[in-house]
Structure formats: C-alpha cells, structure tokens
Specification:
It contains four helices and six strands; from the N terminus they run αββββαββαα. The protein has 110 residues and is of the alpha+beta class. Residues 13-96 form the TfoX N-terminal domain.
Length: 110
C-alpha cells in the first residue's frame, strides 16, 4: 500500500520548524531529508526514523524497532499519536540529522 501524499504533507507540516526538511517520492513511498541526509522513511503511511544512539535515548520508552520494507535496515517506528506532537517530532528529526552519518559520496560515471 503506497503512502498518501496527504500523510507526507501532514508530517512535513509538523516538521515546519526544522530547517531544510523535505520529502522525495521513491517507488510510491517517501524519504525524508534534513541537512542533506535521509533521516526517515514514510512507508505504508507510517514513519520510520533512522536509528542513532542519541535518537534512541531521546525516544526512550517510546522506542519500537521496525522495518520500513522487507530487507530494510531496522528503524524506529514512530507511533501515530506521537506524530501529533510537533515539538517532540521536530526534536527527534533534528537529533537524527545531527548524528546520522553523512551520505557516501557518489562515484563519478565514466
């Protein structure tokens, strides 16, 4: 089941205070970017945030691991109720952007 654009729009609206946050459609699902890094995926209408040690500490008891799609690296599955908490969600994404590794440089085509 592909994610609806309205779901991504809602999440982006909730993250309005985060600098340079954006979404990119990929195969019917979405990747969320912050500071030029993929920080989360939105798949099947659910938010999967990249795992960092600092993010796990921040999330605390709300931490649940899940896979955005079959074969994906584990991510933090964010409960739908927490999507409504703008400040909490924005802080989690800011922490993730700060501590997630930088993307690997792309190889030049020959």
């Amino acid at each position: 089941m592909a994610t609806k654009q309205s779901t991504v729009d809602y999440i982006l609206d909730q993250l309005g205070s985060v600098d340079s946050v954006s979404a990119r459609k990929m195969f019917g699902e979405y990747a969320l970017y912050a500071e030029g890094k993929v920080v989360a995926l939105v798949c099947d209408g659910r938010l999967f945030v990249k795992i960092t040690d600092e993010g796990k500490k921040f999330v605390g008891k709300h931490y649940e691991e899940g896979e955005a799609y079959s074969g994906a690296k584990p991510s933090m599955l964010i409960d739908e109720d927490l999507l409504d908490d703008r400040e909490w969600l924005a802080e989690l994404i800011e922490i993730t952007a700060k501590y997630a590794p930088a993307p690997k440089p792309k190889k030049k085509k020959r």
